[in-house]
Amino acid sequence: MVETQKSSTALQQVTSNDVSTICSKCGEKILNVMTADENKVYHPHCFNCSDCGKTLAGGFFYKSKNTKIDESTIISRNNLTEPVRFCETCYKKVAPKCARCHNIIEASSIVWEDKKFHESCFTCWGVDKNGVQCEKPMKDEPVYPLNDKWYCKNCFDKLDTGVSAATRDILSQKCRKCYKEFAPGSLVSEYKGDYYHPTCFICSQCNTSIASKSFYHQSKSDDQQSEVKFLCENCHIKNAQECAECKNKIVNGEAIGFEGKQYHRSCFTCQNCHNEIGTAHFFKTKDGKYICQQCSLQQQQYDTQTK
């Protein structure tokens, strides 16, 4: 099927001082009337349909947009190739047709399942209880096909198919772990837009299923194809770092790191006021303790007054 664009050209009188009036097809000088296309000039009888040979000068024609054309249709002269052109009659033989209305597509089209449609034809087939057709434009929308028709999500859910649009979305996916499809009626585990069989949704250390259980995960890398690693609660606790202050495992909540050590946020406190320091400014004393900025200023003021 040939992709084309509609164009037009007009006849022009050749004046005596024209110096660039060599026909781009036959290479002969143009003495009287010429036509032009893409900065090239032609004798009117040389500017013709690539199929039937009818002249296209002075009217509309269809020009191929394909970069690769069958060698038998290419006209070559001085290493220059001419585009394939069609008159309207010949164009109808090769023109793409809308898969819904079966009329020729002259402008832009929508491609779905290897078929082409007019944008105005690619609309939802749904009909409400009053017989009013939905006709929602489906361009850039999720499409739900059924029996050679297609529907928007709302209309598909109203059909008596036994399968919701959401289920169809899942069934169109593949397991992020084994890359196999999901069987209708099977259980599916979902995490941040990825779907897993429950038997594939497992702890990366002990291989036990974490479906419907508490779990922890390692962040995805920049490589979206890399496998996300999950840890069950028990393995997460085993791998958790020890708080340098209370010596217990840091299992939940934000950890504070300083000088190569990790602390519970609640353990990383000022030795004077015992408030959490968090990520605020603080100072380390000679005996290795930490004091917040406010307590440090108060201590400096006290030392100045007692001197």
UniProtKB/TrEMBL annotation:
<keyword id="KW-0479">Metal-binding</keyword>
<feature type="domain" description="LIM zinc-binding">
    <location>
        <begin position="21"/>
        <end position="97"/>
    </location>
</feature>
<dbReference type="Pfam" id="PF00412">
    <property type="entry name" value="LIM"/>
</dbReference>
<keyword id="KW-0677">Repeat</keyword>
<dbReference type="GO" id="GO:0030018">
    <property type="term" value="C:Z disc"/>
</dbReference>
<protein>
    <recommendedName>
        <fullName>LIM zinc-binding domain-containing protein</fullName>
    </recommendedName>
</protein>
<keyword id="KW-0440">LIM domain</keyword>
<dbReference type="GO" id="GO:0046872">
    <property type="term" value="F:metal ion binding"/>
</dbReference>
<dbReference type="GO" id="GO:0003712">
    <property type="term" value="F:transcription coregulator activity"/>
</dbReference>
<dbReference type="InterPro" id="IPR001781">
    <property type="entry name" value="Znf_LIM"/>
</dbReference>
<dbReference type="GO" id="GO:0005634">
    <property type="term" value="C:nucleus"/>
</dbReference>
<feature type="domain" description="LIM zinc-binding">
    <location>
        <begin position="241"/>
        <end position="302"/>
    </location>
</feature>
<keyword id="KW-0862">Zinc</keyword>
<feature type="domain" description="LIM zinc-binding">
    <location>
        <begin position="173"/>
        <end position="234"/>
    </location>
</feature>
